[in-house]
Amino acid sequence: MDSRTVSVITPTYNRGKWILECIQSVRRQSYRQVEHIVVDDGSTDGTPEMLEKKFPDLVCEKRLKIVRQANQGPGSSRNTGLAVSTGEFITYLDSDDLYLDDHVAHLVEPLLSNGETGVTYGGHIKEWYGPDGGMIRREVVPLSQIHPVELRIRNQIPIPFMHRKSLTGEI
Description:
Blueprint: E1 6-12, H1 16-27, E2 34-41, H2 47-54, H3 56-60, E3 64-69, H4 74-84, E4 89-92, H5 103-113, E5 119-121, E6 124-129, E7 135-141, H6 148-154, E8 161-164
Parallel strand pairs: 1-2, 1-4, 2-3
Antiparallel strand pairs: 4-8, 5-8, 6-7
C-alpha cells in the first residue's frame, strides 16, 4: 500500500447481520487510498467466510484484509488490526457503524496538509434502533460540541478519529 493509505480497522464478533453495510460504507469513501482490516474475534456465525464470499475482489486486491483470532475482545482486535496495517494513517470503525461518504477524506486532509498534525477527529451521528429495526432516536453531534478543553479534562476522543501510525505507543 502507498504511504498515504488510510487503514480502517474494524473489530467484529458475530456481526454478520450488520458488517456488510459497514464494509460498503468504507467502499464508498471519496478518499480512495483505503485498506479495510476486519479482525474477526472468534465469531461462530460464519462472518469471515461470508465476507470472503461476498468480497473476493477486495480480498484479492488486499483492500480488504480479514484477520482471524480467538475471542479476546474489541480492544485486542483493534491492536491486532493495527499490527497488520500498512497505512500511514489509522482510523477505527465498529462493525455495526457506518461512515458517511466523505468521512475519511475529512479526517485525513489535515494530516496530509500539515506534517505536525498527529490526530484528527470529527463530529458524528448516533442512532438507536428498537427490536423491530425501527429507529428510536437520532442525535447529531457536530464537531463544535467537542471542545478541546473537555478532551484534556475527560480524555474522551470520539470514535471518529484518525492518527498517524507513527504515533502508535505515544497516544
